[in-house]
Amino acid sequence: MRRTSNTIRTRRTVKTAAALAAGALALSLTACGGDDDKSTGNGSGTGTGDTGSGLSLPKLDGTTLEVAAVWTGSEQANFKKVLAEFEKRTGAKVTFVPAQDPIINFLGSKIAGGSPPDVAMLPQPGAVKQAVDQGWAKPLGADALKELRKNYSQGWQDIGKVDGKQYGVYYKAANKSLIWYNAQVFENAGASEPKTWDELLNTAQTVYDSGVTPFSVGGADGWTLTDWFENVYLSQAGPEKYDQLAQHKIKWTDPSVKEALTTLAQVWGKKDWIAGGASGALQTEFPASVTQTFTGGDQPKAAMVYEGDFVQVNIADTKAKVGTDAKVFPFPKAGGTAPVVSGGDAAVILKDSEGAQALATFLASPEAATIQAKLGGYLSPNKNVAISSYPNEVQQKIAKALIASGDDFRFDMSDQAPQAFGGTPGKGEWKDLQDFLKNPTDVAGTQRQLESDAAAAYGN
């Protein structure tokens, strides 16, 4: 994940985090107290196929499995530790297959060559739907369904369904409505955490006046720009319009889109506010956008970086410590709604076998998620993962707010779109917003291009 890793897309929309937004805004993510939530989910492997919480897995000695995902770096390394635990419990041998974005194209090539992975981690609801439409995805079996129903809210189950049948286990979630900042820069500048868009602009000016560029933007990865847009749009236009635009029931030439782009231009249009200016941002990939915010002490390349809870994986690559050096605040309200956008990655079976079904069952369990939760930079929608499993108080607050939201959340808009529009580098919304970052005065032209690309992708 991008991304949720940080990601192809159905037209199903689920409700937004009214509760999550309220929780995120009510809690101070930078001054977190301890958490006494001790919900279940700390099973320990015995290597016998049985766990403390009653999860039973078959013995799979001699079975080999492949799991494909776009994850790299620490995210990939941490997930491999989860797979290693599955190997220990079952005797199976699991190989991680690095995939490229867009993963549907990667899987298409593998399937055409006769060598599909057993399981793929698909980073968009639309990817799940497309895999079903292509006849690639296999429904979850009884054991995986049992585990899913026990551990997930109905909303997280539903976004893994296509035509009423369950295909996906959302192993990984993301709160994509957070802005992370260099605490020392803020302290030196006398800047405070903003709660509204106007306050964000004032904070940015205060930081700029102190001699530090306010924002780091990973514009080389177009998905970061869609996330910026979605937060502003959800806040200003509200959930109903958000749903309509996500399903292309209103056009991108709608006045609500003009308002959101005009608002974004208040940041993107100030070249001195973005590290490297627009041209520099368009050459900065997401991981670098984070690390350059938290290296260089109190003189980093930028003071703030927008993205989800998974930013912590990249902060870990610096010497900064989350909660002290690196702090976070909810994405400020740009309108009447406190925006909270969620994302996620779903495990989908491509080769229906006892081993693949067992792995999906394991990934739906609190045992699997707890392993990665303890390693940091990860958020699970599994409600039976103990909040105390997360390694720091900031992450615990984010996780607690996600679970408290229940079924009330909005999924990433671009992740609901067809791949050609919302999920392909150099095309569609990703490219159009990169062009807008380059020239944020051309609101009308950007709207026309977005609508042209959306209409072609949606077929309407």
Write the layout of secondary structure elements.
Layout: H1 18-26, E1 64-69, H2 73-90, E2 93-98, H3 103-112, E3 119-122, H4 125-133, H5 142-151, H6 154-158, E4 161-162, E5 165-166, E6 168-175, E7 178-182, H7 183-189, H8 197-209, E8 215-216, H9 222-246, H10 255-268, H11 277-281, H12 286-291, E9 304-306, H13 311-315, E10 326-330, E11 341-349, H14 354-363, H15 366-375, H16 393-404, E12 410-411, H17 419-422, H18 428-438, H19 443-458
Parallel strand pairs: 1-2, 1-3, 8-9, 11-12
Antiparallel strand pairs: 3-11, 4-5, 6-11, 7-9, 7-10
Helix pairs in contact: 1-16, 2-15, 5-14, 9-10, 9-18, 18-19
Throw out a few tags for this protein.
D-Maltodextrin-Binding Protein, domain 2; 19 helices; alpha/beta; 12 strands; four-stranded mixed beta sheet; globular; single chain; 460 residues; 2 domains; six-stranded mixed beta sheet; 43% helix; 12% strand
Your description of this structure?
It is a single chain. With 460 residues, the chain is of the alpha/beta class. The chain folds into 2 domains: 18-28 and 42-174 and 343-410, 3-Layer(aba) Sandwich (D-Maltodextrin-Binding Protein, domain 2); 178-330, 3-Layer(aba) Sandwich (D-Maltodextrin-Binding Protein, domain 2). The protein contains 19 helices and 12 strands. The strands form 3 sheets. Strands 1, 2, 3, 6, 11 and 12 form a 6-stranded mixed sheet that branches. It has a 4-stranded mixed sheet with strand order 8-9-7-10. Strands 4-5 form a two-stranded antiparallel ribbon. Helix 9 crosses helix 18 (428-438). The two termini are 29 Å apart. Belongs to the bacterial solute-binding protein 1 family. InterPro entries: Bact_solute-bd_prot1, SBP. Residues 35-57 are annotated as: Disordered. Residues 1-33 form the signal peptide.
